[in-house]
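Onboarding guide, step 5: your first structure request.
Type a short instruction followed by the sequence, for example:

Predict the 3D structure of this protein.
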Amino acid sequence: MEITEIPFARTIGLKKSDSGVLELIFDESLYNHLQTIAASAQYSLAELAAGDYMQQLFPELVGKVLPVLRDSRFKFKSPAQSSISAFPEVSQKAVTKFMQHFEKKGRALIVIEVSVKDDEGKVTSSGCFTWYVQSL
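The system replies with structure tokens like these:
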């Protein structure tokens, strides 16, 4: 399923740019009491971006596994006063370790780091998302 078609993603207005970057447009529906993008919206963008990134990393597993978020750590660094975009990444070493474990046991963990940046490239929040992936 395309990430932007998930009902919750549609509810928060998740968009995917032409280059494939996930983003939330600065809109009052996402405001907190300070009229900046709410912490929960930033977290949601990052978590969805991590899940979408997994599909890009392992396209051969799409539809054959059940990925579930097991754990996360998230830090807010600066108010988001403009549209925000998410930038996930994972080391090649982690990808290799994941695939070795998955091929051996039919399940594995992978940690995906995500930085959320505003329109000026300033990091507003960042986090690590640990995914548990199991064969169907």
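Each response can be followed by summary notes, for example: The radius of gyration is 15 Å.
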